[in-house]
Amino acid sequence: MSARLGDPAWRATAVTGLALLAALALALVAHDRGPRVAAVAVAAGTLPVVALVLVPRAVRHLRGDAGRSLLLALPVAALALALLVVAGLDGRRAVLLLAMAALGAAAGVVLIGSELRQRTANAGRRAARTPWQRLTAVERVRSLPWQAGAGALLIGWSALVGIGTAGPRLSGSGVAWTALLIALIGLGALVLVLVPLLVGAAARGDRDRLAQAREDERLRVAAHLHDSVLQTLALVQRQASDPAAVARLARGQERALRAWMAGEAELDAATLGGALHATVDEVERHEEVEIEATVLGDRALDEAGRALVAAAREALRNAARHAPGSAIVVFAELSRDGAAVWVRDEGGGFDPARIPSERRGVRDAIVGRMAGVGGEAAIDSSPGAGTEVALRLGDAIDRSASA
Amino acid sequence: MTGDSGRRPSGARRPTVVIVDDHQLFRAGVRAELAAACEVVGEAAAPAEAIAVIAAAAPDVVLLDVHLPDGGGLAVLEAFRGRADAPAFLALSVSDAAEDVVPMVRAGARGYVTKTIETPALLDAIARVRDGEPYLSPRLAAFVLQAFSAPEERADDELDQLTPREREVLHHLARGYPYKRIAQRLGISPRTVETHVGSVLRKLQLSSRHELSHWAATRGLLGREE
Predict the structure, then answer these.
(1) Which segment of A60-69, A157-166, A202-211, A253-262 scores lowest on mean pLDDT?
(2) Domain Histidine kinase/HSP90-like ATPase spans what residues (chain A) (predicted)?
(3) Does B96 sit within 8 Å of A329, measured CB to CB?
(4) DSSP readout, A66-118?
(5) Which of B78, B111, B135 is the last residue of a domain?
(6) How high is the ipTM of this complex?
(7) In this complex, is the C-beta atom of A247 within 8 Å of any C-beta atom belonging to chain B?
């Protein structure tokens, strides 16, 4: 029993049932008549709603485990109908009207409760989407709350009929005052039931969203680890006989994991910083060298940025080929207004005035590329002092010119 | 990487080193790496043990892991802060995140290297801090540059600012230049470069810049200080 009282739908049904019974009993005691035509019209209008909406819903709920508590609605409705028939035959129109109003209100409450329950239950099952979708989207339920709307309409209609019937009798009749009191108590009971229902639904929704967010995060981490660390471990196992390859794999993975933990852009590189990291990783793998890269700031990856990345790739390959075994350091300062990237090796260096022909092509590829997007490239090298390639875009050019 | 291959530790004696790390395998690995060039005079796995071992062995250099149980490497640095017998600390960590690196240097480490460092670079770093010189990896130099680049409202305090020269030196360090080449490029002596880096480290330790304080606070450093 206590478990049932914990179920909002059961509480709603019980309270409305009690209110309905009280209203009917009161109406039976009162002596008065209303117009027969109006009663027939109201009956004709209400019964189809009860028959087409409330009864099928109750039957459907009875089949499901969750809806079993609505069993109570059936006896209540049957009793109400029986009293209605008796009262109608007896010619007490007011009783008929009040009964209709109470039935309609009960149906309305059941409809609203059912809608709330479906929505909160679905909130837990829903897959991850945008926060807005999580708030609004409903699985297998119409997006418009037509049930709740119909319920509210029914309750409103019941209230109008109830007031219309009871209102004229309020002058001096103790019974009528009692009726009003009972109606008010019924209304208060309704509020008492509906408010916890709504609050509970909201809280459950919050809990579900939080749990969903945690689950989303776990899935995201799991997916990332699967694509990165587990893949690398698999490769390491297969290449266990080649220490150089294993070291390279471990290093590449280490850098990727660090960048990811630091919240840097993931390596699909929608930003210039991400693209630079990806390029460093790629050159390290292909040329079998070690590169220490630090990127400060970030900016969107536009066409100029792509040219910069391509130029940096050339510079890195160049360093890897012509300064074998030396440390290669990449330093990048990125901002919305500009970008500066330095690629440095501690190799033998060369005299820029006497560049071997096969290196001139690479140099042109770097300088030409940067010039093509309004950028700038400078190569600083001398024999025995290593080589540094500086690539600049935007306000970084002005700063280097004024410095 | 900042290493200057032509450099030799001053004096004929090999540097004495204590290794503080909570992973026994890692300590063994480092000990093997250092065997040729250094004398490992002690090992410790936790701050309390480390403080005792260091006080007893009085090494030239302590290789100090950042992530230790019971207070981390910071606890060890705090214990020796301001003491005349304090050895040179070289912080060592798998992490190169700014919030790990910067508080260690602020607490008194003379250098910071990541555990993936190559043996020659590690030996160079040990030799440097033993000689009282700062050792900033390119990445750490970049972080420091970043911390001092952010606009600061209370810019009147000179501890919160780098001079243009210091900034230039730091920028070259971030780009991977060794001290000798920085000196050549800027037309100053290598000793002056070291002085600039030393003064950057001092500012790093004393500055009240918000970025630095924030990094320190995330590691619980300020709570013990004030």
Answers:
(1) A60-69
(2) 307-393
(3) no
(4) GGGGGGGHHHHHHHHHHHHHHHHHTT-HHHHHHHHHHHHHHHHHHHHHHHHHH
(5) B135
(6) 0.77
(7) no
